[in-house]
Design goal:
By secondary structure, this protein is mainly alpha-helical. It contains five helices and no strands. 75% of the residues lie in helices and 0% in strands. It is flat, with a radius of gyration of 16 Å.
Length: 101
């Protein structure tokens, strides 16, 4: 299904990739904390959550690039929709860290 030039394939992959990416990146952060490589005390309270979710959203660049190489324009369009929605939610959810209320 993901090897097709359909908007629905891009939408589904655009939702699944950040979810899996979030869990992967979160596991890496936990491992770095356990090994003592990264100390969470030096960062703000929401730094880890913001960074993990932003990197997870950026994981959509991987399938986007693969679709671009295959010239799957419709699948690329489908991948953009959930990405834009996730970015808008990210900005809304973490607006207090960037903007004055």
């Amino acid at each position: 299904m993901f090897n097709r030039n359909h908007i629905l394939a891009g939408i589904i992959l655009g939702i699944i990739t950040p979810i899996l990416g979030y869990f992967l990146i979160d596991a890496i952060f936990k491992l770095l904390n356990e090994l003592g490589i990264m100390d969470p005390d030096g960062f703000s309270f929401t730094w880890r959550e913001r960074t993990t979710s932003l990197l997870a959203i950026c994981m959509n660049l991987i399938p986007f690039q693969l679709y671009k190489l295959k010239r799957f324009d419709n699948a690329m369009r489908g991948l953009i929709f959930p990405t834009i929605i996730m970015v808008a939610y990210w900005v809304y959810h973490f607006r207090h860290a960037f903007f004055l209320d």
